[in-house]
Design brief:
Elements: H1 8-11, H2 18-25, H3 28-41, H4 48-55, H5 58-76, H6 83-93, H7 105-129, E1 133-141, E2 147-157, E3 160-170, H8 176-190, H9 194-197, E4 198-203, H10 207-210, H11 216-223, E5 228-231, H12 233-246, H13 249-266, H14 269-281, H15 298-325, H16 331-344, H17 347-370, H18 377-396, H19 400-409, E6 414-415, E7 418-419, H20 426-448, H21 455-464, H22 481-490, H23 492-496, H24 502-518, H25 520-523, H26 527-536, H27 546-556, H28 563-575, H29 585-597, H30 607-616
Parallel strand pairs: 1-4, 4-5
Antiparallel strand pairs: 1-2, 2-3, 6-7
Helix pairs in contact: 5-6, 5-7, 7-29, 7-30, 12-17, 12-20, 14-15, 15-16, 15-17, 17-18, 17-19, 17-20, 18-20, 18-21, 21-22, 21-27, 22-24, 24-27, 28-29
Length: 627
Amino acid sequence: MGKHTHYSLRVGTNNFQTDSLKAHEASEGHAMSLAAKRASERPREQRPLPAALSRLDEETLKKMEYLFNTAYYIAYLKLPFSMFSQLCSLQKKNGLNLGNTYMNDHACKEFCKHISDTLRADLIDSLSTAKFISIMADGATDVSCLEEEIVYVRFVSGGAPKTCYVELAEVESAKAPGILKAIKSVMDKIDPQWMQKLISTGTDGASVMMGRIGGVVSLIKQQAPQVIPIHCVAHNLELAFSDTLKCNETMMSIKELLNGCWKHYKYSPKALRELREMAEAMEIKVGKPTKASGTRWVPHLLRALTVLLQKNFQAIVSHFEHMAEARDSSAEMQGRGRNLSKKLKAYKFQLHLHLMWDILEEVSKISLIFQKDSISISQVKAEIERASQALENMRRRPGKHLAAFQEEVGDGTVFKGVSVTRNNTDDRLFEQSKASIITDAKQFLASRFEDFTSPVLKACGVITNNKSWPKERNDLGLYGEEELVTVAQHFQAALRSNAFDLEVSKDQWLSLKLYCYDHKRIANLSQAEFWVEVFNQVHPDELELSHMLMVVEICLAMAVSSSCCERGFSCMGRLKSEYRNSLDVETVDMLMNICLNGSSPEDFTAERAILHWNQASQRMRRPCLKD
């Protein structure tokens, strides 16, 4: 109210004399207060600020759209806010009318805040309609040494599972109570009923998260006993492969050799220059050796091995041999060259290298599938079974790369023009080693994924996998009904709040199976397409499925993979770099929300963000003030 805020009837009074009341009714302060109250009771679109936006001329709206698009571009590409004025100057130079009012980094940050707020509002709207959710969380320390927890949520929308970034929160303590407090503070903002909807948690398996006594998940289960903790399948696959390597000395030495090659050429420009000169003299192309342990994901190791064997083998062996004999090399460098060249020229070592190449290709394919946000329980089961069978096939006959190596060498001792040292016992010893490696790999794979054989998760896989349904009509009757009951009984508390009826769901489950049998087009769809079709295209008048679909929604919303958290931290690292280490948590969270939940700059539309920006101001915006 400005100067009228001192009026007694606004701040409270005991003076209710008739003359005083009549005098106040005729005052300017009363008129302004009454107008403000009426304005606050109007629908949002009729309030003064939105009305002011609608009165803006087309040219001004277009200008604000350009500015918001530029701010979004900067945030999405993780550029500093200081680039805003430079990009605006470039656009003005190219003939675009942007005015002169908001040509600074502070305006860019404010625009990004309102864009982020609209994205978060969309997430809140989506979660308000979701009956069940799962959360994925992970912790890390950023470049400024702050301990932070990242939270994602998974839910089903229109029959398709969606994984969305929620927020980055600073934790008071890296212990379980501190982490849980951070998760609660994040989730309470977007859905006050999240604990009642929660069905599972996805983590990387750290003891502070998965610990049975005092872990974050165990604390959550005290309030929501139905919650199922799931160790991320992508992390589990990496651990299974890592366990396999540790059980075989030769396989571990391969990883050490790859890291040794990378370090040698990474920290010695002279060595890298010599390698390229040698490759040029040999008329072959070489690639720069890559790091075998870039992240925990297997594809990094595969890339390093592929570069070594497919591109660099001849040049690297020749270079190491040259190092071993060069007089200007130190004793340490000569020893390193002699050791590495000897390993690479050993026939048995090459057999193990190519076996590892075959295993890595198989595991990497699965790892990339497990890192997808859309991964489901039934897909996990299918991929693990396929991987186990592929490993068994490698035991019975050579894989693609091993077979190519054995075919090229034959009974001789030359591989890619390099003489290899070969003993009569190499093949026999390798076959024994191969059998042991593959047996260990299958055992570790089975043990790491034994949680997916639990009754509830196994039942979820059966229900959602439409491709495994019986092909004969008579066999459809009771198929999956026991699994439906298993899931429904475990989550009965969460289902009860949605007025779920188990007997009705059984009838609807049977009706759906028979409906799909009669409609072959639906039955032949992939799992993802099938459930989207069932949720959206099957009309309730034709087939009522509301109760049964609640169980399906639970199965699809399970937090199978938490690799999204790793991608989130990668995004955080690119935003909060050494050059931007003073960014606070709120700003980083705002930018991450745009990068992770926003559309591409080409598909972004600014209208809602502009409206939010205009409504949020206490005073009327003046976008043409300095024009």
